[in-house]
Specification:
The complex is a heterotrimer of chains A (493), B (484) and C (95). By secondary structure, chain A is an alpha/beta fold. Chain A has helices at 9-17, 23-36, 48-63, 105-112, 160-167, 184-190, 224-234, 278-293, 309-324, 342-353, 356-369, 374-395, 421-425, 432-437, 466-480; strands spanning 43-46, 74-78, 116-121, 173-178, 193-196, 216-221, 264-268, 297-301, 401-405, 414-417, 441-448, 454-461. In chain A, strand 11 and strand 12 (454-461) form a beta hairpin. Chain C has three helices and three strands; from the N terminus they run H-H-E-H-E-E. Chain C is 35% helix and 9% strand. Chain C is of the alpha+beta class and 95 residues long. In chain C, helix 1 packs across helix 2 (21-38). Chain C has a domain at 5-39: Histone, subunit A (Orthogonal Bundle), CATH 1.10.20. Classes of the chains: A alpha/beta (493), B alpha+beta (484), C alpha+beta (95).
């Protein structure tokens, strides 16, 4: 049973069904793995007691024949999901010590499906970042290292803790949230699968908001099938979220037929960007070949407004965040720094409670919404967002999915790109357009870079057609046969 | 006659616009399932959404939307089939989200009209610019602790309608008439209880002054005035203050002001003003509100007859004066009471009784229609007795008092007390004959030309008959006998 | 459009984030860099393009008007840094 932490969710479920091991044993192995990989700083809070109690309850349910779709599976919960009775911080100082009196819909769905919580995983503060270097609780370290180097690499962000712990075999899966690429980019950097569902597929209720019109929760796993299983548990209509869509949740695993013959795969020419490393281009070409070999038909398409997606995103997301984060004012929860007047208290609290990147985005957002600039920035960005969404609509008239690289580079070193916010923002160049259009996307590991670190390919789908997305991703996963392991791994390599 | 304020440089006209915040009648809040009732323990009627806990999301209350549509229809306004909720961003201790969810560019209700009922039964139409739905804020309590303010979020998230008039009002009286009429309509519709002392209706008062016929002047906005009298006082004060500023060579600054009821004056809130930049933008937690035309039609069918239509009907069907009809329709229950009294009776007489003795008695005893001792049917009975000459108007007052005391029907009291009018000519004649015989001096005086003495004879005759003689017959018979 | 120190101070005030004089300079540089970069949107002609209000092609759902929430003072005040008698307490506000 030494390799319990290397199992996929699908294998672990079948192992428990067959009585080969219990949820308790599986959880104990992962609790230990979490301890073994503390150097990654993937968790803000570890919750072994909760995990073991949940595992015991899970074993009972399995014994009584009422097992859920994630029964007994130990996972990490991104610390952006409010968890009743367990501190929830969004990796910020301002929410340090905040213990929600409620459970987010998505985390609640997972517990109802039998999942077990190992802890609250680290992230970029308020999910703002692409390298997990903005957390008040310290950087997350990527379990992958460059060949012949022990320099610390970033796991990507914002769901960096989730990605790192799943890659390091310390959690079987983790929740992520994706606003502009925060599931897909860290999945690519960490050699795992990350699925951002269609906006409206998973409830946002109880998830600390960054940019409401973009935020979407999704699974981070080590296989496409696992992503399908976990999405089924997470997704669903929630009357408490006005933007939640009332569509039935399919059994996503059933979509993994392995047959993609005749499907049309769009290859957007605008995603060939000057300065993209050759190996990223090559990985993309390889992906196209895999799909062609499986009987799909690659088609060049045009998404003409692609280059405007990032600037659009960096107006819309800060604008929404400037307003969403106004509630952190030291009155009803979280940290307070006293002041001689109410305004003084607000300013002290927020200056001390927010990190630099969060402040930067709040200020940008405040500026673009302020009198005299609204039309030039915010309204303009909303118009361009319409154009970007229309690009995709048009493309999906002729193709079924779109294939692109996930990120313009493999994982970079912690400390690189840190003094230039825009260089950092460019990490999301391939993930942001679909976020703006609300479309689903999945990143799967396709191979290793020349440095020996993972590369990811991204598939984008039609709204609420996660099934086709998973089907194609499954075929590509098969073709890629990605089996490399990171250097820093629970129990050693 | 137009309202003018005399200044050193001549007459000034006052231009007024009102923004009324009316609390929507609903069980739960605009975006949460917490209760709206008045007077609960602090933070008891607060949900996680109202306290703006991290990750909480708003979901719109259907009934509040219906109430908004009802109000729009009642104001003869355009219902916007698509409207958008936006965030108005500012920091305040009783604003937990750091923004108020409101409607800005696309409100649910567009332009409408409200008809003012002025003195002497005159009317005048005032334009309604728009009406939108928004959240109320919580309450800050400043007097419980020397260095702290306490925050109660019970009101946080309660639905408000903001009804904005055009700057069509020209005097404090018109502003008062506007508020009374608006309150009357909202109460008819059942969309706001209109209780200003509980804060269910507050007004922001926009005032500017100009010389008649000139361009509009710069306006000031006095916030949150909570009674009709205070609104009128604030207008008067503000207009006079502005005139003085201008006549002294100064300029009016567009600003927010605060009314102080203890002095009847307004003062600048400029300190608050400087940093305001509300950064409105569509709330990304909500979707555009699109109304189903069939639903709006359904709501339309539930709109009751409103005061203006009712007034017109009272004038036409009951022959009432515009003034009387106006008073009777102000309150929906009172109008209904009147109609019940007037049914099958002399409608004008019924109006006089309802507005006079009946409402007077209600006021005097501090009772309301629901717990009044005399029902509409009973009052109708009394009026029937007057109309068929069973009793005189004077006796009727006595009967009414007895009804109010005992709750008995009019005919029972008339019977018990033997108050039936004497219409028997011979009985009245006998009384008159006796009075003439016993008072030769007065008879002589009358015959000598002092015709006013007839009043004295009438009085004596009524006295002799215990007030029950038919006054018309007494008059007629007296004149005949004295002429003999 | 350029964000100077005063503008930084003004928006920091609006956002209720204390920014020291010394930080204002640095922030003004960073904000200008970002704003200069997003400015490329102005090359696009967006005349007549409807600004996106929501990416979900749906209209606002409505909830029935029933009281089914609240009535739990402890749950909403439990995390408050300062509270008294069921109220949240803040530094005194002078109107």
């Amino acid at each position: 049973m030494s390799n319990l932490t290397h199992l996929t969710i699908a294998d672990a479920l079948s192992g428990m069904d067959k009585g080969e091991f219990t949820a308790r044993e599986l959880t104990e192995a992962h609790v230990k793995a979490v301890e073994d990989t503390r150097a990654l700083n993937a968790y803000i809070v570890e919750t072994p007691e909760i995990a073991l109690a949940q595992a015991d309850a899970s074993d009972k349910r399995r014994a009584s024949g009422t097992a859920g779709v994630m029964e007994g599976i130990p996972i990490a919960m991104k610390d952006l999901f409010c968890t009743e009775g367990t501190q929830t911080t969004a990796a910020s100082h301002i929410l340090e010590g905040f213990v929600p009196t409620y459970e987010s819909t998505v985390s609640g769905n997972l517990w109802n499906a039998g999942a077990v919580m190992l802890g609250k995983s680290n992230l970029d503060q308020f999910a703002m970042g692409s390298a997990n270097i903005t957390s008040y609780f310290g950087n997350v370290i990527n379990p992958w290292q460059r060949e012949g180097s022990d320099a610390q690499l970033t796991p990507g962000g914002s769901s960096g803790g989730s990605a790192a712990t799943v890659a390091a075999r310390a959690a079987m899966a983790a929740t992520g949230t994706d606003t502009g690429g925060s599931i897909r980019q860290p999945a690519a950097f960490s050699g795992i699968v990350g699925l951002k569902p269609t906006y409206g597929r998973c409830s946002r209720w109880g998830v600390i908001a960054f940019a409401s019109s973009l935020d979407q929760a999704g699974p981070m796993t080590r296989s496409v099938r696992d992503a399908a299983i976990m999405l089924e548990a997470m997704a669903g209509y929630d009357a408490k979220d006005s933007t939640s869509v009332n569509l039935p949740v399919p059994r996503y695993q059933d979509a993994l037929t392995g047959d993609i013959r005749g499907l049309k795969v769009g290859i957007p020419k605008e995603y060939r960007i000057d300065g993209t490393p050759i190996e990223i281009e090559k990985a993309w070409e390889q992906g196209i070949e895999w799909l062609r070999a499986a009987g799909a038909e690659p088609v060049e398409i045009s998404l003409p407004h692609t280059k405007y997606a990032l600037p659009t995103y960096y107006i819309i997301a800060p604008a929404e965040c400037s307003s969403n984060l106004a509630r952190y004012d030291g009155v009803r929860y979280g940290q307070r720094v006293e002041g001689k007047s109410l305004d003084d208290m607000y300013e002290n609290t927020r200056a001390a409670g927010f990190g630099d990147e969060v402040k930067r985005r709040i200020l940008i957002g405040t500026y673009v919404l302020s009198a005299g600039y609204y039309d030039a920035y915010y309204n303009k960005a909303r118009q361009v967002r319409t154009l970007i969404a229309n690009d995709f609509k048009k493309a999906y008239e002729s193709v079924d999915v779109i294939l692109t690289p996930t990120a313009p580079s493999p994982a970079f070193g912690i400390g690189e790109k840190m003094d230039d916010p825009i260089a950092m923002y460019l990490n999301d160049v391939f993930t942001v357009p679909a976020s703006l259009a609300g479309l689903p996307g999945i990143s799967i590991p396709s191979g290793l870079s020349s440095e020996g670190t993972p590369l990811g390919l991204q598939l984008l789908g039609r709204a609420f057609d996660e099934e086709t997305l998973l089907r194609v991703a499954g075929v590509m996963e098969q073709a890629a046969g990605f089996s490399a392991l990171p250097q820093l791994i629970a129990g050693g390599k | 006659m137009s309202y003018r304020i005399k200044g050193n440089t001549g007459d000034w006209e006052v231009v007024i616009g009102l923004e009324v915040h009316a609390q929507v009648i609903s069980n739960s809040k605009l975006f949460s399932g917490a209760a709206t009732a008045f007077g609960a323990e602090p933070n008891y009627q607060v949900s996680l959404v109202d306290a703006a806990m991290p990750g909480m999301l708003p979901v719109l209350n259907k009934e509040v939307v219906a109430q908004g549509v009802r109000t729009g229809l009642g104001l003869r306004a355009k219902i916007n089939m698509k409207s958008v909720f936006e965030r108005k961003n500012y920091f305040y201790a009783d604003l937990p989200q750091g923004y108020q969810i409101s409607q800005f560019l696309e409100p649910i209700v567009g332009e409408g009209v409200l008809t003012l009922d002025l003195d002497g039964g005159e009317t005048r139409d005032v334009g309604i610019e728009r009406m939108h739905l928004e959240q109320d804020a919580g309450k800050s309590i400043h007097d419980q602790h020397p260095t702290q303010s306490y925050i109660d979020l019970n009101r946080s998230g309660v639905a408000l309608m903001e009804i904005v008039s055009r700057p069509d009002l020209r005097s404090p009286e018109e502003a008062g008439a506007y508020l009374r009429k608006l309150r009357s309509i909202l109460r008819y519709l059942g969309t706001c209880d209109g209780n200003m002392d509980e804060g269910s209706m507050r007004a922001d008062v926009n005032v500017s002054v100009r010389k008649p016929g000139e361009e509009l002047g710069t306006r000031t906005e006095t916030k949150n005035v909570n009674s009709i009298r205070f609104v009128q006082q604030s207008i008067e004060f503000e207009a006079k203050r502005q005139i003085k500023v201008i006549e002294d060579g100064g300029k009016i600054v567009q600003e927010t002001r605060l009314f102080d009821p203890s002095t009847g004056t307004t003062r600048s809130m400029r300190s608050k003003e400087e940093a305001h930049d509300y950064r409105y933008f569509p709330d990304p937690d909500l979707l555009p509100l699109v109304l189903d035309p069939a639903w709006v039609e359904e709501i339309k069918k539930t709109i009751p007859e409103l005061p203006d239509e009712k007034k017109a009907r009272f004038i036409k069907d009951f022959g009432l004066s515009a003034y009387d009809a106006g008073i009777l329709v102000t309150d929906r229950d009172r109008a209904a009471f009147y109609e019940a009294v007037a049914e099958g009776r002399d409608a004008k007489l019924a109006a006089n009784w309802v507005m006079g003795d009946y409402f007077g008695a209600l006021n005097k005893s501090g009772l309301s229609l629901e717990n009044s001792p005399v029902s509409a049917k009973q009052l109708g009975g009394l009026i029937g007795l007057i109309s068929d000459d069973t009793i005189s108007g004077r006796i009727a007052k006595e009967v009414f008092e007895a009804m109010w005391e005992s709750g008995k029907d009019a005919d029972v009291i008339v019977e018990e007390k033997g108050l039936k009018q004497i219409t028997d000519t011979s009985a009245i004649e006998a009384a008159i004959d006796e009075i003439i015989a016993n008072n030769p001096g007065q008879v002589e005086g009358y015959k000598g030309g002092n015709e006013r003495l007839i009043g004295w004879f009438v009085g004596q005759t009524m006295k002799a008959t215990g007030g029950k003689a038919n006054p018309g017959m007494v008059n007629e018979l007296l004149k005949k006998k004295l002429a003999e | 459009m350029s964000v100077d120190k005063n503008t930084v101070a003004k928006i920091a005030k609006l956002a209720r984030i204390r920014v020291d004089e010394a930080q204002q300079e640095a922030l003004s540089g960073e904000l200008n860099q970002i704003l200069g970069w997003v400015e490329q949107l102005s090359e696009l002609d967006t005349t007549g393009v409807e600004p996106m209000t929501s990416v979900v092609e749906m209209t606002q759902p409505l909830r029935e008007d029933v009281v089914n929430d609240g009535h739990y003072v402890d749950r909403v005040t439990k995390n408050a840094p300062d509270s008294a008698h069921g109220f949240y307490a803040v530094p005194k506000v002078v109107e």
